[in-house]
């Protein structure tokens, strides 16, 4: 590189950068002179005095100079680039030395640390620290043993025992108190049971006495039909029962004397139920409804009113032909109708109940449908009576017992608090009026 630079200085002409050929010596001689940077080395060509013939050596030399110039420029750029790289490397080296120094200090600081805890890395310090730890653990163990000894021999167990005894004593007292209460309740229950049994026995004795009295009073009736059945309460256990049943019938007449002031509705004076049809024949006034006659559970409303607390004579007639019916009150026919269970024969073998409506044959009574009042002279016929006969019975000018159910004392039994008592209906009716 240096040899090429010297050769370049030798071949360059001074000043203008032109190549001058010296004269006055043997052969040719070249002179070099400095030229400014960026000078164009192409020789101007004078069109008027252009050298027509250029030697090959001059052309080659000129190309060599151009190549050398380009090489120098490239080397200059390379040197500048290398200087920058050197500066960058120097700065990195400085930083590396600073980092190495700081890490050295850090290592010296960490020398007294142990990744396992606060123990130093120095063996002597580690042994000393372990000794202190062991002594601390030993002291804590001795303190625990001393506390256990004090607890076992001190007053605490005795206090605990006293507390437990006191608590057990309280529980025992509570248990004894509860047992005493249960014994007292048992005694009271026994006394109540005994009193209830005594009351039941007294009630039964009263009923037996009443039955005996009634049986004795039967002989006092002037005639077997001069009595009445009293049903004073609206319950489901007061009622009378006719011992006789009905045959199969295609017509009937039922008559009775009633006295009631119950409201609303007098209830059910009588009902006749058969297997499969509890409402075969029913006479009922329930709630605010008018008095109704049911035949085979079919209903007809009757224009009757008997809830004034006076005796009234009631007669109902019915025939299966067209289901025709008639309603009489105090001997007067107040209403008629038809199509009440037409062509349905009254079934035999049922039960006649006085004062209750049957939901099953002979039972399951409803207190809201019970009759409240007095009833007498309940008679049934298997035919339709003439109006003159009905009027005669209502006027007490004649008495006709029913041919299928007559009103006689031996044919009527009462239950619950229902009673039978002597009654001369015509005299009592005249007294009411």
Q: At CATH's second level, what is the architecture of the domain at 227-432?
A: Sandwich
State mean pLDDT (0 to 100 scale): 78
Number of strands: 16
CATH topology of the domain at 227-432: Jelly Rolls
Text of the CATH class of the domain at 227-432? Mainly Beta
Main β sheet profile: 7 strands, antiparallel
Question: What would a concise description of this structure say?
Answer:
By secondary structure, this protein is α+β, with helices and mostly antiparallel strands. Among the domains are: 59 residues; 206 residues, Jelly Rolls (Sandwich).
List the defining traits of the structure above:
433 residues, 7-stranded antiparallel beta sheet, Jelly Rolls, 21% strand, 40% helix, 6 helices, disordered N terminus, alpha+beta
């Amino acid at each position: 590189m240096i040899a090429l630079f010297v050769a370049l200085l030798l071949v360059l002409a001074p000043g203008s950068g032109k190549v001058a050929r010296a004269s006055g010596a043997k052969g040719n001689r070249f002179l070099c002179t400095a030229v400014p940077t960026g000078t164009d080395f192409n020789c101007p060509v004078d069109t008027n005095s252009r050298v027509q013939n250029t030697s090959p050596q001059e052309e080659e030399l000129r190309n060599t100079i151009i190549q050398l110039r380009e090489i120098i420029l490239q080397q200059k750029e390379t040197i500048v680039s290398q200087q920058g790289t050197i500066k960058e490397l120097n700065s990195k080296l400085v930083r590396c030395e600073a980092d190495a120094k700081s890490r050295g200090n850090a290592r010296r600081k960490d020398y007294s640390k142990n990744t396992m805890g606060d123990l130093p890395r120095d063996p002597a310090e580690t042994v000393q620290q372990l000794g202190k730890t062991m002594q601390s653990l030993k002291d804590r163990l001795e303190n625990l043993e001393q506390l256990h000894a004090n607890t076992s021999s001190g007053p605490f167990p005795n206090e605990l025992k006293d507390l437990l005894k006191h608590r057990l004593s309280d529980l025992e007292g509570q248990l004894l108190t509860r047992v005493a209460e249960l014994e007292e309740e048992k005694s009271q229950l026994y006394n109540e049971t005994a009193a209830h049994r005594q009351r039941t026995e007294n009630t039964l004795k009263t009923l037996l006495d009443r039955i005996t009295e009634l049986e004795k009073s039967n002989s006092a009736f002037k005639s077997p039909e001069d009595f009445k059945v009293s049903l004073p309460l609206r319950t489901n256990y007061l009622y009378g029962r006719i011992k006789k049943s009905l045959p199969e019938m295609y017509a009937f007449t039922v008559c009775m004397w009633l006295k009631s002031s119950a409201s609303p509705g007098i209830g059910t004076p009588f009902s006749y139920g058969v297997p499969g049809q509890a409402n075969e024949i029913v006479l009922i006034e329930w709630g605010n409804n008018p008095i109704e006659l049911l035949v085979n559970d079919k209903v007809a409303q009757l224009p009757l009113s008997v809830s004034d607390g006076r005796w009234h004579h009631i007669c109902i007639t019915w025939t299966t032909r067209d289901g025709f019916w008639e309603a009489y009150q105090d001997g007067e026919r107040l209403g008629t109708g038809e199509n009440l269970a037409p062509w349905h024969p009254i079934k035999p073998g049922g039960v006649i109940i006085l004062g209750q409506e049957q939901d099953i044959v002979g039972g399951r009574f409803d207190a809201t449908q019970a009759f409240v009042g007095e009833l007498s002279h309940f008679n049934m016929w298997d035919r339709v009576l003439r109006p003159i006969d009905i009027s005669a019975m209502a006027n007490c000018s004649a008495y006709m017992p029913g041919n299928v159910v007559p009103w006689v004392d031996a044919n009527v039994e009462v239950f619950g608090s229902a009673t039978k008592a002597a009654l001369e209906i015509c005299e009592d009716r005249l007294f009411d009026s």
